[in-house]
Amino acid sequence: MEIWIQDSAKALAQAIVAAASIVDFSAAVIDGGFPHWVRSRVVQATIDEAAKLDLQGVVMPEIIEGAVGAQARAIGGASLPIFARYLTDQNVLFKEVDHAEGT
After folding, report:
1. Per-residue pLDDT for 92 more than 60?
2. In which domain, by residue range, is 23 found?
3. Number of domains in the chain
């Protein structure tokens, strides 16, 4: 388990620093369908790994634990109809367009 935590933390730290280098955000929330003690260790290990990286010019977000846990899949699934109804279509740029020029 410790090897998985360290490998995950290193990858998460790199992803967070890479994202923070181009987008300003206040927090990186780490959560998942695993026990609380695993989440706590992953968060702390990610903080430690991020501190080892070159952060020059990067405004680091706070790395925090989420609270949804194993319920994330159910909540995400339940939100899909809401997203489909009320969010902007993110695929509009990739759709084929029929031109009205006699085609």
Report:
1. no
2. 2-70
3. 1
pTM of the model as a whole: 0.72
- 41 to 50, 54, 58, 92: CA distances (angstroms): 14, 22, 24, 41
d(CA 78, CA 70): 14
* pLDDT digit string, tens, across residues 22-51: 999 999 999 988 899 999 999 999 999 999
User: Residue 65: inside a domain, yes or no?
Assistant: yes
* DSSP H or E run through 13: helix 2-20
Q: 50: closest CA among 22, 9, 19, 21?
A: 9
List helix spans (H) across 21-101.
Answer: 36-51, 72-86
